[in-house]
Design a protein that fits this description.
Layout: H1 2-23, E1 28-37, H2 41-48, E2 66-70, E3 73-76, E4 79-86, E5 90-97, E6 103-110, E7 118-127, H3 132-138, H4 141-161
Antiparallel strand pairs: 1-7, 2-3, 3-4, 4-5, 5-6, 6-7
Helix pairs in contact: 1-3
């Protein structure tokens, strides 16, 4: 009986400590990567605003689990991707998965008039729930998503600069 009581009290204290620690962590997680491409913004915009063009630069777009429904909608594995807003300088898309919180991805095109370069910044923003395991797990987003984003941005750079 004493052992059971010790285990229960220990679990409650551990849960309280982890909850308190997780309250110190931010509830919004942002992962961002950028690349400079030697191409005009309109060329870059054509590649990123249409999901059908993503097959040229996003890894895995030609796998069997990917279904492209239109220029603004696709299913990538278990994630629904919908492009919501498109302007000359930004493309905002919503990524919704059954396994995780919805994410908002923004691709920004930054350029100077008369310059042949475009800086492409890609970021994912996720609102994390207060649960300790959700907040602690979100700390890995940068390590998981960052390398994938870097590789895809490098693919985009190669596809535009090789033309």
């Amino acid at each position: 009986m004493r052992l059971i009581k010790l285990v229960l009290v220990s679990l409650v204290i551990l849960f309280a400590l982890s909850t308190g620690l997780s309250l110190l962590l931010p509830s919004m997680v942002l992962v961002s990567r950028a690349v400079t491409i030697e191409a005009p913004p309109d060329s870059v915009l054509a590649k990123v605003k249409d999901i059908r063009q993503w097959t040229a630069w996003v890894d895995g777009m030609e796998s069997p689990g990917v279904q492209i429904h239109s220029a603004t909608s696709a299913t990538l594995g278990g994630t629904e991707v919908t492009i919501g807003t498109v302007s000359d300088t930004a493309i905002v898309s919503n990524w919704t998965s059954k396994k995780s919180n919805p994410q908002v991805a923004t691709i920004r095109l930054i350029s100077r008039p008369g310059q042949p370069q475009t800086v492409v910044q890609w970021q994912f923003v996720e609102q994390v729930k207060w649960y300790p395991w959700a907040k602690l797990g979100s700390m890995m987003n940068d390590k998981i998503m960052g390398p994938m984003m870097e590789k895809n941005l490098d693919n985009l750079k190669r596809s535009l600069e090789n033309k």
